[in-house]
Amino acid sequence: MTDRIGFIGLGIMGRPMARNLIKAGHQTTVWNRSRPGIEALIADGAEEAANPAEVARRSDLVITIVGDSPDVEEVALGPNGIIEGAHEGLVYIDMSTISPEVTRRISDRLSEANVAMLDAPVSGGDQGAIQGTLSIMVGGKDAAFERCRPVFEVLGKKVVHCGSSGSGQVVKLCNQVAVSLTNLAVCEALTLCRKAGVDPERMIEAVGAGAGSSWQLLNLAPKMLARDFAPGFKIDHQQKDLRHALATAEAIDLPLTGTSLVHQLFAAVQAEGLGGEGTQALVKAVEKLAALKA
Ligand code: NAP
């Protein structure tokens, strides 16, 4: 028998992820703060609950993918939160990217109510969510991880149990450090190519087949060239993740010099009121420094 899934947070990521669970045959109950996300999923066969507590009551496993730490705290522990729907055997999986420290606190609070929690942030963007090919990094107890593995396998192509509660979030922050610095490298390569008067399409083709290739080069550079700044992953979310990475590093006396630099460059794009654009809009800050017109 398939698990009854509760799904909360039907944004860019949550909507296709919930859809994949429905397609895999799971009875799925959803809740979202605003209506549009709910309407879309009901059309796909989901049932609607009045609040997160009711989602929990009607489900074996509850998944959230919302925004930042306070959002997860509100949905999990706030009024009408998941904790109010706690019942024997309930497992809660948070797939948002939030603070590892807050994750451990929420997990401790839920375990007092006999709810096991896994942190399971993801990488792979909106396309990975749509195609069910996400990389999923999981923190939490072995038994809960094994219990939820089949559901992770519907959502992703790579599932790694990273360690105890909060470890999934730490690994996700490592991912965000690597992703954002690679993004900056791609912006600089593209800007160098354009200002030197060479066709950037040729650069993407050649570099994309060599040692300088990356997901960012292959996926974001063509969008930068096409001036397509629609969000797959919003700058505001990237900045939240870099703040968590820098805070986690500071707590262990670790300088992250490159991460600080790219965080400031993203801040320059946010200052222009563009935090809702995709992370490929980082190129605008690099172009501005180069006095290079779009
Ligand atoms: P999004 O499109 O902005 O969607 C966020 C969702 O969370 C929306 O459904 C929103 O509800 C809901 N939400 C936010 N705060 C809430 C609150 N306090 N209470 C209830 N619901 C709340 O964001 P997204 O791109 O899907 O990202 C979601 C999470 O996944 C973030 O933690 C992000 O860092 C992470 N992530 C994103 C990507 C990506 O490529 N997009 C990749 C990996 C990880 P409304 O519809 O009412 O606004």
Number of domains: 2
Give the percentage of residues in beta strands: 5-15%
Fourth-tier CATH superfamily name of the largest domain: NAD(P)-binding Rossmann-like Domain
Helix content: 40-55%
Topology:
Blueprint: E1 5-8, H1 14-23, E2 28-31, H2 35-43, E3 47-48, H3 52-57, E4 61-64, H4 69-77, E5 91-94, H5 100-112, E6 116-119, E7 122-123, H6 125-131, E8 134-139, H7 142-155, E9 156-163, H8 167-195, H9 200-207, H10 215-225, H11 235-251, H12 257-271, H13 282-289
Parallel strand pairs: 1-2, 1-4, 2-3, 4-5, 5-6, 8-9
Antiparallel strand pairs: 7-8
Helix pairs in contact: 1-6, 4-5, 8-10, 8-11, 8-12, 8-13, 9-10, 11-12, 12-13
Residues 9-14, 32-34, 37, 65-67, 71, 74-75, 96-97, 122-123, 125-126, 232-233, 237, 241 line the site of NADP nicotinamide-adenine-dinucleotide phosphate (NAP).
Note down, in words, how this protein is organized.
With 294 residues, the protein is α/β, with parallel strands linked by helices. The chain folds into 2 domains: 4-165, NAD(P)-binding Rossmann-like Domain (Rossmann fold), CATH 3.40.50.720; 170-289, N-(1-d-carboxylethyl)-l-norvaline Dehydrogenase, domain 2, CATH 1.10.1040.10. It contains 13 helices and 9 strands. The strands form 2 sheets. A 6-stranded parallel sheet has the order 3-2-1-4-5-6, with helices on both faces. Strands 7-8-9 form a 3-stranded mixed sheet. α1 runs parallel beside α6 (125-131), α8 (167-195) packs across α10 and α11 (235-251) runs antiparallel to α12 (257-271). The radius of gyration is 20 Å and the shape is globular. The N and C termini lie far apart (55 Å). It binds NADP nicotinamide-adenine-dinucleotide phosphate (NAP).
